[in-house]
Amino acid sequence: MKTIMKLIFCILSILTFSGKLFAQVNVVATLPWIGNLAKLIGKEKVSVTTLVKTNQDPHYVEAKPSLIVAARKADIIMYNGLDLEIGYLPVIIESSKNPAIQPGKPGNFDCSQFITPIEKTPSADRSMGDIHPLGNPHYHFSPSNIIKVARGMAEILAKIDPSNEAYYRKNFREFQSKWQGKITQWKSKNLAGKKFVAYHWLFSYLADEFDFQIVGCIEAKPGIPPSSGEIKNIIDTINRTKPNAILVNVYSPKKPVEFVTKKTNIKSILVPHDVGSLPGTDDWFLFMDRVIQLLSEV
Ligand SMILES: [Zn+2]
């Protein structure tokens, strides 16, 4: 009996003094690409819950009770930042009453801390409807930024689960070497010099890195439905610049897109906006494969 008591005491001491022992780190991610990246870096040492569905418009998400419940159990919450989640995430974090994920804690992980935002418009004001006040938040189309975010994820997972530090670093190195190979493959698709119109300002990072041009967006100001004047402007731009196609995604409003395609005789192509939003795009590499393939074909 004494031996058993000693053993129990011993186990309890180990649990108490070795810090928190994780069966799996409970990661809550806002967007599908973030959840996927966390899984690629954390593999079986993390369990991932993603708050926003793959077919959902990431700009407009409701802070449902189920999302608050998910956040309550999180060891870490990972999010896009640049105010993309401003409409729901602060409410979720606060209502969760989970001390681990409050601002300033290691469990509050803003992926945008590693990236350099583009399209910063000092005059942008979210209250006026502009939903990109801190610059373009869609940097998951940017391989050069994603590799930095992946490295940052490996670092933070190692910090909150130090017993698996080597494991996270190894997974990152694997990610990095796959990323390197993919870059060569993607660059060979030769998107350089192409021109596109998009519904929303999703593809600016991709255009910068692959040297093509977004000549305009149907939604002239991010998040604000186009006025008839803006529709006329984009039609003029299309007639003048002759882009290869209009890029739309699953939640783009159909009416203005159909109107513009009809008036200009230019075709629209459905491009995944996030990991898993179209069949066969279930990880970030497959998602990028598909995006680049689609753009290279027109
Ligand atoms: Zn946006």
What's a concise summary of this model?
The protein is α/β, with parallel strands linked by helices and 298 residues long. It is 44% helix and 11% strand.
Comma- or semicolon-separated keywords:
298 residues, alpha/beta, Rossmann fold, 4-stranded parallel beta sheet, binds zinc ion
What's the name of the CATH homologous superfamily of the largest domain?
Nitrogenase molybdenum iron protein domain
Strands, count: 8
Strand content: 5-15%
Q: What is the level-2 CATH architecture name of the largest domain?
A: 3-Layer(aba) Sandwich
For the residues shown, what is the average pLDDT? 92
Structural class: alpha/beta
How many DSSP H or I helices?
10
Low-confidence stretches: 12-19
Spatial strand sequence of the major β-sheet: 2-1-3-4
General shape: globular
Q: Compute the gyration radius: what is it?
A: 22 Å
State the domain count.
2
| Biggest sheet overview | 4 strands, parallel
What's the level 1 CATH class of the largest domain? Alpha Beta
Ligands, deduplicated: zinc ion
How far apart are the first and last residues' alpha carbons, in Å? 76 Å
Query: Percent range for helical residues?
Result: 40-55%
What is the CATH third-level topology name of the largest domain? Rossmann fold
